């Protein structure tokens, strides 16, 4: 498996990590100079002023990683790059000025349409319209799952790091050249970002960073599916890899439906919130989140090498059921009338 870390992947990962690490201090200085800090609110767990513009360094690292390889300027690379920039820029505007949830959702759907048009799609049906719809839902779901995940120091970056590293380790036929480079570059960005975001965080990634990571991992899932046409189990591996954030998203939506509140509202009943409320140190929450994701990616990788649909389906069902049982036991679906809802997930 380690032999799959070929030169382009190593170069992209190192270049992305170095660029991210170099840009983060600059972002911190500019944030202090212009007083660009995370806004206060009932859903915030920090009392000190912290910048939420870490996504600026992450996009710079990702672009540096892609530019460091022979993919730079090729048609296979520029379409995803433009989509990455679109979603990142939308998140940045939301971080600085705020955007209505519907506007962000429309941008996410546009990103899914662009990837579908460029060949990164979910060919689940014979009807192209249904495939387009599935692709858009897939992309939007991953984007919002990682936006939800970015609510505690280090959790989103550590989970994304494990997932991207797992994709980077997949054999070359399982991923395109663009997919492998993006996976390695995103892993490098996350590793460098954790130097500043590991508890206690000195900077947040903000919506620009979390939505970029979600889109990047959605793209990797689509790339994996594209590389295995005709394989019925191809969609299961991306879901197993990202089972933790996807399940957290699903439970949050169910929770809000039970409360009869808007799906665009926010709360502090995500799995990491519940662990923190039980007295878990923030670093332990990060470690357990990364460990669960590492176990899921390792199991998914083993099953993917066997081309066994039944085994893939069983792994997905068992993994999601176990995580769901733990989350529900912690109280993820509990209706708390005292919980204040005033934030938006999209």
| Cα gyration radius (Å) | 19 Å
Helicity range? 55-70%
What are the secondary-structure elements, in order, as H or E? HHHHHHHHHHHHH
Average pLDDT score: 89
Q: Oligomerization state of this entry? A: single chain
The rough form would be described as globular
- The helix/strand class is mainly alpha
DSSP strand tally: 0
Q: How far do the termini sit from each other?
A: 36 Å
| Integer tally of domains | 1
What is the makeup of the main sheet? none
How much of the polypeptide forms β-strand, as a percent range? under 5%
Number of helices: 13
Low-pLDDT stretches are: 337-345
Offer a few descriptive terms.
single chain; mainly alpha; 68% helix; 0% strand; globular; disordered C terminus
């Amino acid at each position: 498996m380690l032999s799959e870390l070929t030169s382009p992947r190593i170069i992209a990962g190192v270049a992305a990590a170095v660029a991210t690490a170099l840009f983060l201090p600059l972002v911190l200085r500019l944030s202090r100079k212009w007083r660009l800090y995370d806004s206060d609110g009932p859903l915030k767990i920090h009392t000190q002023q912290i910048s939420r513009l870490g996504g600026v360094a992450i996009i710079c690292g990702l672009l540096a990683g892609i530019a460091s390889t022979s993919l730079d300027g090729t048609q296979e690379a520029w379409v995803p790059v433009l989509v990455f920039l679109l979603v990142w820029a939308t998140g940045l505007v939301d971080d600085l000025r705020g955007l209505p949830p519907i506007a962000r959702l429309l941008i996410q759907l546009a990103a899914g349409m662009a990837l579908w048009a460029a060949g990164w799609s979910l060919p689940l049906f014979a009807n192209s319209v249904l495939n387009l719809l599935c692709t858009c839902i897939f992309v939007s779901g991953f984007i919002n799952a990682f936006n939800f995940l970015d609510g505690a120091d280090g959790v989103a970056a550590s989970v994304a790091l494990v997932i991207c590293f797992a994709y980077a380790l997949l054999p070359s036929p399982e991923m395109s050249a663009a997919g492998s480079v993006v996976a390695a570059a995103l892993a490098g960005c996350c590793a460098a970002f954790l130097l500043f975001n590991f508890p206690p965080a000195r900077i947040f990634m903000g919506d620009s960073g979390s939505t970029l990571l979600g889109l990047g991992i959605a793209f990797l899932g689509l790339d994996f599916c594209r590389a295995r046409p005709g394989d019925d189990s191809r969609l299961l591996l991306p879901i197993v890899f990202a089972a933790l954030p996807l399940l957290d998203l699903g439970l949050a939506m169910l929770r809000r439906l039970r409360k009869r509140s808007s799906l665009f509202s926010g709360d502090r009943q995500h799995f990491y919130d519940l662990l923190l409320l039980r007295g878990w140190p923030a670093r332990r929450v990060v470690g357990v989140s990364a460990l669960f994701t590492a176990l899921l990616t390792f199991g998914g990788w083993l099953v993917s090498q066997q081309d066994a649909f039944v085994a893939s389906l069983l792994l997905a069902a068992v993994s999601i059921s176990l995580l769901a049982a733990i989350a529900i036991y912690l109280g993820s679906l509990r209706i708390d009338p005292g919980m204040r809802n005033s934030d938006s997930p999209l």
